[in-house]
Amino acid sequence: MVLLVHSNILPHCRKIRILMAEKKMLYVLKEETPWALSKDILKINPAGELPVFIYDGNIIAGNYAISEFLEETYTQNRLFAGNNKERAETRRLVDWFDNKFYREVYQYIVGEKVYKRFALHKPPESKRIQAGINNLRFHLEYIDWLSERNNYLAGNDFSMADISAAAQLSIIDYLGDVPWEDYTNAKLWYSKIKSRPSFKDILNDRIKNIYPSANYTNLDF
After folding, report:
1. In the chain, what's the furthest Cα-to-Cα distance?
2. Are 179 and 99 a contacting pair, CB within 8 Å?
3. pLDDT at position 83
4. For the whole model, what pTM was predicted?
5. Which of 2, 125, 193, 211 has the most CB atoms in a 10 Å sphere around its CB?
6. Residues in CB range of 144: below 8 A, 6 or more apart
């Protein structure tokens, strides 16, 4: 059995789920609360981070390790494709969204609206949310620029760069904080990603006690 321990509010977990769907893998999901991980998860991954991938008694922890393992093991439908230069560009953008976007946007917006509310039981700080939205505009401008020049972010083919970016954006979009109307090319790109079969389960995700934005499941937003 293949098991993915995840949380639907973590973009790195969504990233692995999309990747596994692109690889047409069958797997079971186990939901965990990021700020209150079970003892079982802390035992198998002392780092205390999700996702965790378990198969045949083997454990792989961390989104980078899991994504590289899946790409090397399930070689159909490569998501790090092309020559060395093209694969390097894909990895550069994966790192951009997994780290820079996460640090500058996700931690501000989701940190205030979700983590602070449910983990700390405190009200969100509007200044931090606004800082995250300001940072988001910078990233959307970059996505707009990339998608204007290519079919996808890293070139003409769908890749891990698109998965990483869309996984991050999907949670911000759920909360209704993405100003799509100001970024035509980014909106068209996201609509294309959103329409892929691998994204279907992501659009079915629900964050407890928070309703999704009106456009979250709308493919023609």
Report:
1. 49
2. no
3. 94
4. 0.96
5. 193
6. 183, 184, 185, 186
pLDDT in tens, 179-208: 999 999 999 999 999 999 999 999 999 999
Q: Which residue has the tokens 């994204």?
A: 199
Which residue type sits at 4?
A: L
CATH architecture of the domain formed by 84-197: Up-down Bundle (1.20)
Residue ranges covered by each domain of the chain: 84-197
Residue pair 86/155 in contact (Cβ under 8 Å)? The answer is yes
Cβ-contact 11, 166 below 8 angstroms: no
| C-beta of residue 178 within 8 angstroms of C-beta of residue 169 | yes
**How far is 162 from 154, CA to CA, in rounded Å?**
8
Q: Is 106 helix (H, G, I), strand (E, B) or coil?
A: helix
Of 184, 179, 187, 219, the C-alpha closest to 203 is 219
Binned at pLDDT 50, 70 and 90, residue 221 comes out as confident
Rounded to the nearest angstrom, the gap between the alpha carbon of residue 81 and the centroid of all alpha carbons in its chain is 20
Closest among 182, 184, 190 to 166, alpha carbons compared: 190
For residues 98-117, one letter each, b for 16 or more C-beta atoms within 10 angstroms of the residue's C-beta and e for the rest, the string is: bebbbebbbebbbbbbbbbe
Segments of the chain assigned E as strands? 2-6, 28-31, 52-55, 58-61
